[in-house]
Amino acid sequence: MVSGHVEALFSAAYDGELSPDARGAFDRHLAECSGCAAAFAELTTAVDALREQPTARMPHPVRLPEGSPVPERRWFGLPALLPRGRRLVAGLTAAGVVAAAGVAAALVISGGSLARDTTQSAASSGSLAGPYSGSAGNVSVLPQVSVPSANSAPPAHSALCASQTLGISATSADQIPDGFNNRVTQDDGITDVILAAPSFDYTPGETVDVYARIIDDATEAVSLPCTLLVGPEAAGSGAALTVPATAAPATPAGALTYGGQPVLEVVVPGAAVAGETYQIVAEVPAGAGQTQATEVTLSIQVT
Amino acid sequence: MPICAYVGEMDDEALLDRCRRGDRDAFTPLVHRYQDELYTMALRLTGNPADAADVVQETFTRAFRSLPRLRGATVRAWLFRVAVNCSHDIHRQRSRRPADPLEDAEGRVLDLPDPGLGPEATAIQRERADAVRVALLALPHDFRVAVVLRDVNQLSYEEMAEALSVPLGTVKSRISRARGLLAAALRQSSAIFPRAEEAW
């Protein structure tokens, strides 16, 4: 029988990471315990077998993009990059979310970066601020985005989009549960903004729980002023969709901790077709934990 | 000394500095330096040579666009981070294609053991490689990534923490768990544990 607390040392022992004292105690135990010795030998053999596998060679040359190595897209260009014919916007079913002091003010984000695509620039942010309520420290009801049929009339979305904020807080490691396969990181070398979902695969109408966290020594919270659900380019369901996803309101730094809670729910379009890919795109403006404006994109696949 | 040779000898940081100033030629040495490492990682993660090649292509395409913005992280760890994300994206967005993991689309053998080995030794090595490949693909993704970065690419704990955006403690626990799962997955493999077969 293998002792659990000894087994927990196997990996560190393999890597030579145990202190001399710990290693001595480890070796003495293995000398007396045939079960642990056999288990450690098994692990060593298995890892050695992996390590002995040779380096493979890239089978063909890497093709680099034209031009010079400069950032491909800036946030300010995002709306322009989305094909006009594919922009449809749904009504938002934003529900209540935490409101900390100053939230109402934080909800009114300047839409300047999106002004070029605004067809109704006078759209009020008040209609979006309304549903948010609650008490600091808890997420009462998650904001939710639902996507209507592809035949819905495209309302003026840019102003709506510019009024919504995905608040990501804190640096603790438990913001995203372990084991989430679908995870993407936007990294500028200083701050990582991470979006994650439990799975890549979702069925039409299913809700995607989106988790988020940031990693930065200095930043306790960021506000991402616009989150979009971008539909597939090959519009098998009749039309591709670009929908502003609502999100938690901005909060003062440190005022809100989501600890293991999703920050956003996105409903997969009912008309989506298996095989289609949707993207949840969040703007990360310069200064909001990142040195330059950028975006982070989480892909999901319809099954 | 030709300029290209000089650039090729620069360390990562010097190349990164030139990339930031828009020097396209400074990016090529980074490709040559890391493409095989990244390809090997992607091959172990996906088990599919075509997907692995696409991961490397996509990694460098993304890196080409955003590497100049990199600050405070090592190029190597950052490239692995991008490649891990690309592996997620590319492999899961595609249906699994039946393919001999040791051959590419043109049928060239990519991942053979030492060519100096005789036929019998080569056969044994292929059996071992296949057993390891199957065992790796059976691991949950996060654990597969952990054990590949550590034991295939030999990243340090710190590099892994940087590449995976997780704390050092999480790195160690994932490696530990992953190795345990790998050993369990290989336990019945006669190619890895010949005595298991002899016991019959």
Describe the structure.
- Chain A folds into two domains: 4-51, no CATH class; 75-302, no CATH class.
- Helices cover 19% and strands 20% of the residues of chain A.
- Chain A contains eight helices and twelve strands.
- Chain A has helices at 4-7, 10-14, 20-32, 34-51, 78-81, 103-107, 126-129, 158-162, and strands at 144-145, 166-169, 182-187, 192-197, 201-202, 207-215, 221-224, 227-230, 242-245, 264-267, 277-284, 294-302.
- The longest helix of chain A is centred in the N-terminal third of the chain and has 18 residues, at 34-51.
- Chain A is elongated, with a radius of gyration of 24 Å.
- Chain B has 200 residues and is an all-alpha fold.
- Chain B has two domains: 1-111, Rna Polymerase Sigma Factor, Chain: A, CATH 1.10.1740.10; 114-200, Winged helix-like DNA-binding domain superfamily/Winged helix DNA-binding domain (Arc Repressor Mutant, subunit A).
- In chain B, helix 3 (28-46) crosses helix 4 (49-66), helix 4 (49-66) crosses helix 5 (75-92) and helix 8 (157-164) crosses helix 9 (168-186).
- The longest helix of chain B has 19 residues, at 28-46.
- Chain B is globular.
- The model of chain B is unreliable at 95-110 (pLDDT under 50).
- Chains A and B meet through helix 2, helix 4, strand 3 and strand 12 of A and helix 3, helix 4, helix 5, helix 6 and helix 7 of B.
